[in-house]
Amino acid sequence: MPTGDLVSQLLALFAVLGVGVLLRAAGRAGQTDAAALHRLVIDVTTPALVITVLRRAGIGAGAWGAVAASTVALFACAFAGVAVARALGLPRAAQGAAGLVGSFSNTGFLGVPVVLALYGDAGGAAGTAILIDTIVTMVMLWTFGVALAARMGTGGAVDARSLLQLLRQPAVASIAIGLALHALPIPLPTWVERALDALGSATPTLVFLALGLSLDLRSLHGRVRPLVAFAAVKLLVSPAVAFGAALALGLERTTAEVAVLQSAMPTSMVSVIVAARYGCDGQLAAGTAVVTTLGAVLSLPIVLEVVRRLLG
Predict the structure, then answer these.
(1) If we measure between CA atoms, which residue out of 233, 239, 240, 14 comes closest to residue 107?
(2) pLDDT tens per residue, range 132-152
(3) Which residues form the signal peptide (predicted)?
């Protein structure tokens, strides 16, 4: 799909985000409504989307190479974020926040819908994006990410709750269901398919509406320099490292593009929650999420165009 189509897709989604911002500014909705939408996305629409995609496309053999490339980018940018914060003279709690928000991408709420819109089921792209979200974002966040936040923050030691929280995520069950339906395969009644399609297709709209309702520009005040630095790590360094890893692994074109796109997504909103929960600088993490989310509308089309030109 041409890069211009990505721009069109992103502009449409950010227009929805703008509706959320206007509703918040007008006092018609706010953080409470955003939280309700997030729960709906996590518990209902995203699992429906995952089941639909995996049932139809499965996960291609090359997907594990994309996971490896994205994992390399995650670790590299976690350490880069900490190093940048340290170079700026920021305290340890801010360094921990920088490591989290510089590495963990919004691969589920934003990455999977964008990849699905760009590639559909072609080449197993959507299945690859889901696998990256599951392993590189979800599993790594609740293990490596929590350990990093606990070590750098003041939240104490890591306990078993983080792993239990991971296992309780509806997305985990939806992945197993989707793969089972693909492998067997099990026919579904037409009305069930239509219901899953309707719920899954609502995910991007609900996600961006919730983002608009939750954006707090006050979190940017007085921290422009570190926020710009962390955003550069997340939006530019992360996809660059993923691209290098994809080349080294010899990934085929579509798989490489998906790996780079997932690594180029803005900061994961859940990483902001983890940063605050374990005593890192939650305000700095939230500010980075705002900057990277707004910046992605410019950076994602550029990243995709550069990658496609380099891949020939």
Answers:
(1) 239
(2) 988 899 889 888 998 898 889
(3) none
Alpha-carbon span 121 to 299, nearest angstrom = 24
Q: Is the pLDDT of residue 6 over 70?
A: no
Give the domain CATH number at 200.
1.20.1530.20
Residue 312 lies in a domain: no
**C-alpha separations of 303 from 119, 300, 306 in Å:** 16, 5, 5
* pLDDT at 42 > cutoff 80: no
Q: How many domains does the chain have?
A: 1
**Residues for the chain: how many in total?**
312
Name residue 264's amino acid: A
Host domain of residue 10: 3-307
Angle between helices 3-25 and 282-311 (to 10 degrees): 160
| Residue carrying structure tokens 């709420």 | 109
pLDDT per residue as tens digits for the range 156-215: 555 556 556 666 778 778 888 888 888 888 888 999 999 999 998 888 788 778 878 877
Q: Which residue matches tokens 């707004």?
A: 294
- Reference 219, options 292, 274, 269, 286; nearest CA is 286
